[in-house]
Amino acid sequence: MVQVFLEGFLLQASLIMALGAQNLFVLESGMRRHYHLTVSFVCFLCDLTIIMLGVMGAATLFQHYPEFKIVVGVVGIVFLLQYGIGKLRTPKEDVYLSDLLKEKNLKKSILRAITFSILNPHAYLDGVVLIGGYSSKYSELPMRMTVGLGAAACSLVWFLVLSSASSKMMPVFQNPRRMRWVMGTAGVCLILLSARLSVDVYGWLLEMNHPGMSISGTITNVSP
Questions:
Q1: pLDDT tens digit sequence for 121-149
Q2: What is the distance between the alpha carbons of residues 220 and 224, in angstroms, rounded to a whole number?
């Protein structure tokens, strides 16, 4: 069972370290100390839920109802775009980090953590399709759930390390110009992620309307 747990842990480690909206939000929360440990735990619970659904066989949901994946994708595009533009529209006057820290709001931090976690179709692709699909090599449910628990444990460790390490960087960004640079960079990254997700959703639409066709219009699966 320990080996199976480590398989899930390492599989998630290969997926979660890529730059994404959820990781950016955890980084920002840690840097600002906006309930960063709570945010990390909420993101972990969301990942745990998605992964457990995957290992219990929810991957069939995307196969039978591809429209669900597209709806989530469109909502995610709008959310990332709106949030990214909001970062870029931060007032140009000097805003010190000490002022930003006064904006702490536990409820808002939790809601944003949930939103960044569940409005991310790639989280479903990783947790449900990839991890769930990998776990399907085990016929027994307890073994599949062990894979899922290993993957979820990796999420928890990653978020805690990410938020704690970024919180140590706070003194570096006491300068308001640096803070504006960080927020502007985060905004650009979120907009780029929105654009990348738009391309993915377009590809999903093509696949749904023309099974076997890739985004470039070539046939990827041809029956003999």
A1: 778 878 887 888 788 778 788 898 999 99
A2: 13
Question: Which token pair is 83?
Answer: 């949030």
Cα 213–Cα 58–Cα 82 angle in degrees, nearest 5:
70
Distance CA 97, CA 176 (A): 7
Rounded CA gap, 35 and 21, in Å? 18
The CA distance from 119 to 80, in Å, is: 9
State how far the alpha carbon of 21 is from the alpha carbons of 30, 61, 131, in Å: 14, 24, 20
Question: Using CA atoms, how far apart are residues 52 and 163, in angstroms rounded to an integer?
Answer: 24
Record the pTM. 0.70
Count, residues in the chain:
224
Neighbours of 59 (CB within 10 A): 21
What's the DSSP call for residue 219? B
| Residue 168, phi then psi, degrees to nearest 5 | -70, -15
Q: What is the pLDDT of residues 177-218, one digit of tens each?
A: 766 777 788 788 878 878 888 888 888 788 777 765 544 443
